[in-house]
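Posted in: Structural Biology > Protein-Ligand Complexes

Title: Requesting predicted complex, uridine-diphosphate-N-acetylglucosamine in pocket

I'd be grateful if someone could produce the 3D structure tokens for the following input. Sequence and ligand are given below.
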Amino acid sequence: MLKVICVCGARPNFMKIAPLVDALSRTPDATTILVHTGQHYDERMSRLFFGDLGIPAPDLNLEVGSCSHAVQTAEVMKRFEPICIEHRPDWVVVVGDVNSTLAAALVASKLGIKIAHVEAGLRSFDRTMPEEINRVLTDAISDLLFVTEPSGVENLRREGVADDKVHLVGNVMIDTLLRSRSRADGSAILATLRIEKKKYAVVTLHRPSNVDDVKTFSSILAALETIARDMPIIFPVHPRSRKNLETSELGERAKRITDLRLVEPLGYLDFLKLMADSAVVLTDSGGIQEETTILGVPCLTLREYTERPITITQGTNRLTGSSTEAILKAYREVRDQPMKPVKVPDLWDGAAADRIVTRLVTASRALGLL
Ligand code: UD1
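-- Reply #1 --
Done. Output follows.
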């Protein structure tokens, strides 16, 4: 039997690891150990998701918590290495692009353990983004690279990754979305927030480039001020953004905007319902660009570039950057013009995790691990 360690650490990892752990539990060829690094640890940033997504409790929690990038990465490495030495897995499976992803992959690579990276190949071509560094480095040391969209395959080819390591398999985050839709429909979040279907906007912001710089955050708030005159805006505030609002004059300004509703981060099912029924989503998240494409909800991405270009060419996404005028221009277009037809990206069909496990087992046989 294969021994597989699956690693998750931060909020967007949980939606990706859930279908993988499930698919691995259904194959007779593997046993799985789930490791949570503890990069995210708040009830609302972590535990809520395990319940909502039906992920079994992690077998091990490294409890690294929040610290600088170097310390966080190093702490995951220090605490993950003895686990790999004790359990000697055949594979370490990492997902996404957070610090925990890179840290776990580095440990496995130094111990000669095979690495599978799920959501490989995405590139923003912006090396000031911590996630871009994590993506490039994790991909460089992975043995199997599971890719969500054709741009990822092209990027890896350009970087010289051998074709036989690269597998276009679809999107595990969409596996989770499709599996959760009917349960999310039962969420009472619209009633709780006293809002009506298709008559409100949703905002999420957490990228350091948007929320750590007061001028940029202020320019985004100015756009929200105008949009809030049209419709209520629900803004579940990420801890990083909350800290920045509270430590600058922006917090008071945000509170004064009637109909900009600052709420705590939501669980997966409530947030899915909130997104699905909204008129428009404004975000700097990666995953939300993909989820809105599947939900058919217009998405304005408050960044200059996206590592998920298929959400623009085929989906509902458009890039605005963070200037007030650009955000408002895109918002008005979305509000006043009919939406262009959406084409669901190939393989975003709910079966990506099964494909990944099949390929993992096949590759293991070829390597003599099974
Ligand atoms: C991390 C990921 C980012 C991902 C995001 C989703 C990296 C480099 N960044 O960014 O890719 O999109 O998660 O949320 O890995 N905090 C809490 N409670 C928590 C977690 C964090 O209060 O449970 C606060 C801490 O003050 C911390 C800050 O949020 O300093 C930022 O957390 P951190 O994990 O360092 O980065 P994120 O901005 O969440």
